[in-house]
Structure formats: C-alpha cells, structure tokens
Amino acid sequence: MASSLSTMLSQPRIKFPTQYSSFNVRFLSSKLLEVQSTSCRRRRRTSVALRRSSTFSVRNFSQCHSPSKDQIPSLRDFIPKATHTAPASDVQSESMTASLVNRGFQLCNISQFSVLGQIGLSPTRQIGVVDYPWPVMISDVMPRGRIYHETYGCQMNVNDMEIVLSIMKNAGYTESVEVPENAEIIFINTCAIRDNAELKVWQRLNYFWFLKRQWKSNVASGRSQSARPPRVVVLGCMAERLKDKILDADKMVDVVCGPDAYRDLPRLLEEVDYGQKGINTLLSLEETYADINPVRISKNCISAFVSVMRGCNNMCSFCIVPFTRGRERSRPVESIVKEVAELWKEGVKEVTVLGQNVNSYNDTSGVENSDEPAVSWELSDGFSSMCKVKHVGLRFADLLDRLAIEFPEMRFRYTSPHPKDFPDDLLYVMRNRYNICKNIHLPAQSGSSAVLERMRRGYTREAYLDLVKKIRGIIPDIGITSDFICGFCGETEEDHKDTLSLVKTVGYDMAYMFAYSMREKTHAHRKYVDDVPEDVKQRRLTELIEVFRGSTGQCYDAKIGTLQLVLVEGPNKRAPDTELIGKSDRGHRVSFTNLPIPDKVDNNGKRNPKVGDYVEVHITKSTRASLFGEALALTKLSSFYNTSHEEAVAYASRT
C-alpha cells in the first residue's frame, strides 16, 4: 500500500483509466493528493491511505511544477474536518492517523470518498479518519517489503549493493532479512566476467523462482514467512549483458537493473506492482553515486570499501567490463574525503579504494572544458593506451596523498589498477606515506608478449618486468599480486611456459588464476576463435597454480623474524577461543595468541587486543598462505612507523 502510493506521489500527475476520466488528479505535495469530481458541488476531504492494489495508470510529466510549501495544507488542516464528521464512537481515529504518520506511512487527501469503490479501492481495507461504520485494523497496513540480498563477483559489486541498500532505505524499504524465504524483495547482484559466475547466478534464480511459484504452499508449510510472493531483482553486470534472456526466463525475474540505474530501483519495483516488468540497463557517462552514503553490509566494522571511479576505457579483448560498466568517470575528491571522514567517525581503520581501473582516476570537476587534447597524462614507461584522455584533473596520486594526510591513523589500500597507470608520482606517494599499504595489484594476464598483444593490453613481457623492477627499486618491501588467464585464444605451449617463467621471476604474494571463458560482445568474441580445448586450459591452470605456490611460499618465508603491524579483524576461525587474526601492511594474514600485552597507546599496563587494534607482531612461522607470530604490544599506526623510521636511521648511522 505504502509503496504504490510512494510511486504515485513521485509523479507530478496521474491519469485515471478512461472510465474515470471525470476525475482530475493533481498532487499538492509529497504526501497530499486531491481528487476533484466535476459532477459534485459539495466537497469534503478525508485522510486515507491508498491501497497497493489500485489500478492507476502512471505517466511521468517532467514539466509539471509543485506549488510552494506555504500553499500546501498540513495534515492537521484535514484531521479536524474529518473527525468532525466521524461518529462519536470512533474516538481513536485521530490518534490512529498520527500513529500511521509517525510510522512512516504516507497519507493522501481524497475528495468524494464514495469514489474509492469505483477506482478499485476496497473500503474495508482503507485506514484513516473517515465517517464509516466498519472497523479499522492497523494490521491491515503493510510495510513496503523486507529485502534479502546476495552479491557475486568483485569488491565493486559489494560496494554497489551498499549503494542499492541506501537508495532503497531512502525510499522507505528499511528492513533486511538474512534468508530469502522471509523476504518480499530479493536482490541478486551479479558478475559477468566468467561463465562459472553466471552459472551460479542461474542456479540461485531457479531457487528464487521456486519461492515465488510455490509461495502459498511454502507459507503453509512454514518454509517461507514472507507476506507475499517475492519480487526478484537482478542487478549488476549480468543484468546489463543478458537483460533480454533474463526477462524472458518464464517469469523468473521481475526487475533487471544495470550498474548505472540503481537510483531507478524504487520506480521499477512500482512498475511490477502494476503488472509490468521493470527494466533499466542504460549506461551513463556521469553517474558515480557520489552523493549516496552507502549502507555498510560487512559485519567487520573496522574496514570498508569506497568507490572512487566507475567504468573502464581499456577495451582489453577478453574483457566484458567496458560493455557492462560503461566508460570511465571519477568522483570529485571532496566527495570521497567526506565519505572517508564519515567512516572514520564510525570507527573504520582501513579503507580499500575501488575502481574498475582505479589508478586511472581523473577528477576533472575543477577543470574548465577545452577542446585541446591533454598532453600531460603520464603512463608507465613502455606502456600504451587505446584511449586518449581529453582533460587532465586530479590524478590518483593526488587523491591518495590527500587521504593519507587527512587521515593519518587510517590505512589505505586500492584495487584494481592497470599496469599502464603507474607513473613515478604514484610510486613515490606510496613510498612516502606510511598509511598507504605497501601492496600493489599488478595484473599481468599472461607472460607472453604475443598473447598480450592479442589481449590488447598495451605492453610487452619486457615492459611489465621493467615496471616490476622500478616498483621494487622505489618501494623495496612492496608486495605484488596479480591476475592470470590460462588458455586465451591462440595460446601455445610456448606462450604458457612464458607465463610460468614470469610467475617464477616476479615472485607474487598472491594471484587470481582462471581458465579463459569467452564473453559475448568482446573484441575476442568478434575477432578470435576460442581454440584451446577445455582440458588443455584446465591442465595449464593446474600447472600455473603449482608454480605459483612454490614461489609465493618464498615471499611468506622471508617474513620470519620481522616485526609486522597487524590490524586485528577478529578471532581466528581455526582457534576462535585462543587466537586472533588480522592483516599486515602487505596484506598477509597474520594470526597470534590472544594474551594481555603492553598498551603503548594509553600507557596503562596490559590488556588483550580487540578488533580494530593495531598490534606489533614478531613473525615466528609461515605457511604458503599465512603467517603466525607473537604479539608484542598495542600501538598506533603513526607511532609504529615513526619508531621504525628512527630505528632504521639509528642502524644506518652505526653501519
């Protein structure tokens, strides 16, 4: 009921079906509706909440203007008139109306109450202050609907879901549930990078369809506790890529919404209430959701994601992202600083800065438009780009530097970058700011120059290795992670061996490795043949994983005997009663025994570490995926690195 009214109130005008054309409907404000009957001379106003099942045909007229606030009657202007005509026995009507308003229900003003039956509103279901003899039940008023959500894919999708929940909360959808069986609205945020990710989504959609199709029997058996069959909403990259297929899937999905259209979700859901399919997958050149304050999903209150740019211009031949996420556009620096400041107030200690190509961040909000092409966009040495930057504003190094200075006790990471956008300025900022984590994700995709050319990556094997050498020369203790694709179009055994040798040469801390999965619309789909057999792809992937495990073990072993600053994230799941776990500056998982240790922050003796503390840990043992050590003391981020710097200077002077 409230949701359908919300939609009508968001429209400047509503047109009734032809048989009710004698009624002219005009909105006075976001909560008041006036219905005028041309056949009636005497008018009276009543407050009533419209029912969700009304059969209005909604039209959007963007040129209509709302009257000023001083012209709009308040709710109290109508309550006395309505209660004046009510029977003496209905003494609770006014308090009931106030209660509904306080609970967030939108009330509207309707002339000629007798019209309600004509336009599809059952009087026995109305709630308000009116002169009718039938009983009024508050339980008849339904909330807008409880939300259940699932997210697949990258960290950007996680952040997108937080944006979606914020938009829905502002539209009145305030309640979430932990299981889909109890939800009236089901959001599934999808990934289209690989075929396996899409298969998982289809499996879940089949189950959600079962919840819809068998809703009555599920409720009767106690399996479901939703108030009505759930609306299923597909979001994200898969929504844009397969919108027609999804909507045609036997009424499986009600709404399909692309990454740039999340603001439209409340309206799309209202269209479903009117018996239509809701779809909006239009890509935007401007949408960044900079003004949206995300609703944090993670129960880990000490870390958060902040999206700073959206889209990608690289057009790698294997990648679907430019077609599902659109072109690059960046948020203004000030909006990012404001969001991070709010996170700091909430107790967040570590922020991961997100973007599809995050280090190509370019805030041009303060740059005057010019037709002259930019000549100062600096790329990594030996790298090229297919996309030319028209205007150069504040770059990623400027953003990181600003965040590091303004929040000295907060740690910053970022993902996912492209190797082409690592100019020297960015590397020196990372070296000079202790609270920018010394970890770089450097996706290689392949170790073969021939394959890299077909992938349209803009660099060769040699250029990539030169960049790694430069990075480690400027930031000696840097951790490097990467992405690899096995079995890309035309990849030979020699190409595969080049990739294996690259992994051994670089020595990655971590890597994401996958067998190639061709995506429609991509350059590879149009120009190349997926000619590497699946069994060969899987064999090469297995070999790559084995080589990686051998090299990454050396990275972890090298940390034995060192002192690491660990941000505590919670109990170690393998020993929740005795151990804590967190991440080091390089992103390594570090666990240690939970014992009282000296508190250097408050200098008040010893205490046990808790979530959100920075702990000095002496590393005593390593595996291929984690470190173990002895907790020495509680400290602050700035204090730890100032002390480390002083000790390094003292050691250098002695030698």
Automatic annotation (TrEMBL):
Residues 557-633 form the TRAM domain. The keyword Metal-binding applies. Residues 145-274 form the MTTase N-terminal domain. The lineage of its organism: Eukaryota, Viridiplantae, Streptophyta, Embryophyta, Tracheophyta. It comes from the Eukaryota. GO terms for molecular function: 4 iron, 4 sulfur cluster binding; metal ion binding; tRNA-2-methylthio-N(6)-dimethylallyladenosine(37) synthase activity. It comes from Anisodus tanguticus. InterPro entries: Elp3/MiaA/NifB-like_rSAM, Methylthiotransferase, Methylthiotransferase_CS, Methylthiotransferase_N, Methylthiotransferase_N_sf, MiaB_methiolase, rSAM, rSAM_horseshoe. One of its GO terms (cellular component) is mitochondrion. Keywords: 4Fe-4S, Iron, Iron-sulfur, Metal-binding, S-adenosyl-L-methionine. Belongs to the methylthiotransferase family. MiaB subfamily. Its cofactor is [4Fe-4S] cluster. One of its GO terms (biological process) is regulation of primary metabolic process. This is CDK5RAP1-like protein. Residues 298-554 form the Radical SAM core domain.
